[in-house]
Amino acid sequence: MDQTLIRNFCIIAHIxxxxxxxxxxxxxxxxxxxxxxxxxQLLDRMDLEREKGITIKLAPVRMEYKSHExxxxxxxxxxxxxxxxxxxLEACEGALLVVxxxxxxxxxxxxxVYLAIAADLTIIPVLNKIDLPAADVERVSAExxxxxxxxxxxxxxxxxxTGVGVDAVLERVVKxxxxxxxxxxxxLVGGEQTRALIFDSYYDDxxxxxxxxxxxxxxxxxxxxxxxxxxxxxxxxxxxxxxxPDMTPGKTLESGEIGYIVTNLKTTRDAxxxxxxxxxxxxxxxxxxxxxxxxxxxxxxxxxxxxEYYNELKEAIEKLSLSDSALQYEPENSPVLGFGVxxxxxxxxxxxxxxxxxxxxxxxxxxxxxxxxxxQISLNNGDEIDIKSASDLPDPARIKEIREPWIKGEIVxxxxxxxxxxxxxxxxxxxxxxxxxxxxxxxxxxxxxxxxLLTDFYDQLKSITSGYGSFNYELDDYRAEDLxxxxxxxxxxxxxxxxxxxxxxxxxxxxxxxxxxxxEVIPRQNFxxxxxxxxxxxxIARADLSAYRKDVTTGLYGGDVSRKKKxxxxxxxxxxxxxxxxxxxxxxxxxxxxxxxx
Length: 598
Known about the structure:
- The protein is α+β, with helices and mostly antiparallel strands.
- The protein folds into five domains: 3-182, 3-Layer(aba) Sandwich (Rossmann fold), CATH 3.40.50; 196-279, Elongation Factor Tu (Ef-tu), domain 3 (Beta Barrel), CATH 2.40.30; 298-371, 2-Layer Sandwich (Alpha-Beta Plaits), CATH 3.30.70.870; 376-481, 2-Layer Sandwich (Alpha-Beta Plaits), CATH 3.30.70.240; 484-596, 2-Layer Sandwich (Alpha-Beta Plaits), CATH 3.30.70.2570.
- The termini are far apart.
């Protein structure tokens, strides 16, 4: 294929602004998919994506239009999956920025624009959903102009649902997005040496490891011997081709093209996302600039309901991690829950998706512990350690300081709600940094400790802004704070899986709140059960589960009162003994009690 006729671009937008619907229309108009095979959100292949109506995995597709080859990548919109967006941008020369005409610029729109500008892409602004009664084309156009500094006539007005104006999008892609030969940020070292960037990979049970690649020089033919420059793994390109949107085999993938390679590799760890592929026969000397490794910052313990399923859980997570490069895990052991796995995620939605996939695709019954973040700890002897769970905290006497992760956040909200948003930030120990206005919208910039935003911040934001607030964040740094571990005791026994880290000023309220919640979810026993919260050796909250009262005097008719007293005394003695030796069965809901905070 002549490189000057190739256009590589992706679609970026906030959640629900119409990326996948626009991709559907583009495929329909270019005849990539026959009308009879069309369905909504065609590129969202996973059941979860279709049910939740969100894109989770990026999806490439190749289209033909007026003798041009158009390679499109549909990207997710949720902040938890922004690492998928940054990878897509590296493989492209341009981006369609889709903005909802009813909602305007949102937090994730801003974040994606910054990513696209940093990647030096040509941005084409597209105003979607102009057919809706609530669409405010003039106001939202003004927002786009002030954000991008473009002219009014540069903004394309379309309805991806009905197809109005979508042909103009194809024309602009061909006219405005540069072809791969005009890309100057990646120097082709050694002229025509073959180099390809892996921007996604997944494991297929029948075919092995499949790589999505962008070729930056040379070509890769079917059955070629290939080599990864970073991992030094070698393999064979068993099949090469394009996604239209199904896999369509070809003879070669040439410079400038986006396509897939089916390899004989056994694990995606041999071909990491961001690695450079070259040919064994004529290897390139320099790898392409890859991606920075994504670091998870939300951790939760996953345990099977019964210990006999531990190996199945471990194998299932290994398989999922093959297609999700952000997933990191390590074995964990808990006295109450037995053997399990501690997994790192990029956010709560990411955690929710993985949990649902494990339950659906692998038929596992899971107990998930309260999500936490990681902490950096300096010990008195000068050692530095990282902990991912409160139960791993060393003896406080050995600790010099504890540092927790802070984030930089941005909230986009209508002006009327600014006061409520700033108040919400301060209740989370956050620091309000800056306030700026784009027409009728306010952009609130702030910093806050990540741990305080983990559980219900997004829900509270939606609640106080009547659903209009949108939120985007990135990890900033680790800061030393006065942090303590709050432990929980059930019937006098400490339950390590319930321990949480908290700021000292918030620890008492948090302890009391969780003890009250535990009282609701732990069933009553035949003996009284004490639920307690403690910091070190000091108890800070307590609630008692009263015992079941069984009337043991029903079989006594009349007679002396002493018989009654005798039976009741025997019952009291039995309850006392049970309290000493009785085991309390803790239900799985108790471990996710943090997620159900009011």
